[in-house]
Automatic annotation (TrEMBL):
One of its GO terms (cellular component) is cytoplasm. It is an enzyme of class 3 (hydrolase). Preferentially binds diubiquitin; the interaction does not hydrolyze diubiquitin but, in vitro, inhibits the hydrolyzing activity on other substrates. This is Ubiquitin carboxyl-terminal hydrolase. The record marks D167 as: Important for enzyme activity. Its EC number is 3.4.19.12. One of its GO terms (molecular function) is cysteine-type deubiquitinase activity. Keywords: Cytoplasm, Hydrolase, Phosphoprotein, Protease, Thiol protease, Ubl conjugation pathway. It catalyses: Thiol-dependent hydrolysis of ester, thioester, amide, peptide and isopeptide bonds formed by the C-terminal Gly of ubiquitin (a 76-residue protein attached to proteins as an intracellular targeting signal). The record marks Q72 as: Transition state stabilizer. It comes from Smithornis capensis. The keyword Disulfide bond does not apply. The lineage of its organism: Eukaryota, Metazoa, Chordata, Craniata, Vertebrata. The keyword Endoplasmic reticulum does not apply. Belongs to the peptidase C12 family.
C-alpha cells in the first residue's frame, strides 16, 4: 500500500521474514533486493555503535560512490528513511509511475550529500505526508514526532556485490562484505543475527524483505 502511494508499480512488495532458519527463509519470495530490520536501541547497542564508528574511522572501509545514503534529521522517520534507502539503492529495478513523488525525490537528491538529502526530506511534504498517513493506518495512534521511540529501522542492500547497512543515525554506510543476488537474503539475515546476539534478552526484532511480487 505504502509503495503504491509513493508511485511504485507493484512488481515488488514488502513481506515479513518469519524467522531466521533456512526453512522459514525459503518461504520468502525471491529475488530479494533489500531487508529492513526493526530493532531496539539499547545501551549495549549504543556502546557497540560508538566502538564500531571509531574502529571504521581508524581502519577505513570501502564504500562505493554509487551507494545512496542519507542522514536522519527527522525524529521517528527511520521507517521512511529505511524505505528510501531500500528503494534508492535498487532504483534500476523499480518501475515508477511518471508522477511518483519518490522518483522525483530520488532524481532531485542523487547529486546531494547525505546531509543535504536529510534537509531536503524535511521540506518534502509528499513523502512525509504519505509516511504519516500510513503510520496512522497501521496503528491506533502513530507516534508523535517528538515522542522518544526506542525502536529503529535500518536497511540492508546489495550495491555492486557488497552488503551495506544504511542507518541515518550513523555517519556513513557500513560495508558488511561481499554478497550476491542469490545469497543476499541469507547474508543480510546473518547481519540481523549479530544485532540479536548483542542483545540476547531483547525480543523486539523484526525483519521485512523487499521481494519480487
Amino acid at each position: 500500500q505504502f509503495l503504491k502511494q509513493l508511485g511504485i508499480h507493484p512488481n515488488w512488495q514488502f513481506v515479513d521474514v518469519y524467522g531466521m532458519e533456512p526453512e522459514l527463509l525459503s518461504m520468502v519470495p525471491r529475488p530479494v533486493c533489500a531487508v529492513l530490520l526493526l530493532f531496539p536501541i539499547t545501551e549495549k547497542y549504543e556502546i557497540f555503535r560508538t566502538e564500531e564508528e571509531e574502529r571504521i574511522k581508524a581502519k577505513g572501509q570501502d564504500v562505493k560512490s554509487s551507494v545512496y545514503f542519507m542522514k536522519q534529521t527527522i525524529n521517528n522517520a527511520c521507517g521512511t528513511i529505511g524505505l528510501i534507502h531500500a528503494i534508492a539503492n535498487n532504483r534500476d529495478k523499480m518501475n515508477f509511475e511518471t508522477n511518483s513523488s519518490l522518483k522525483k525525490f530520488l532524481e532531485d537528491s542523487l547529486s546531494m550529500t547525505p546531509e543535504e538529502r536529510a534537509k531536503y526530506l524535511e521540506t518534502y511534504e509528499a513523502i512525509r505526508v504519505t509516511h504519516e498517513s500510513s503510520a496512522h493506518e497501521g496503528q491506533t495512534e502513530a507516534p508523535s514526532i517528538d515522542e522518544k521511540v526506542d525502536l529503529h529501522f535500518i536497511a540492508l542492500v546489495n550495491v555492486g556485490g557488497h552488503l551495506y547497512e544504511l542507518d541515518g543515525r550513523k555517519p556513513f554506510p557500513i560495508n558488511h562484505g561481499e554478497t550476491s543476488d542469490d545469497s543476499f537474503l541469507e547474508d543480510a539475515i546473518e547481519v540481523c543475527k549479530k544485532f540479536m546476539e548483542r542483545d540476547p534478552e531483547e525480543l523486539r526484532f523484526n525483519a521485512i524483505a523487499l521481494s519480487a511480487a
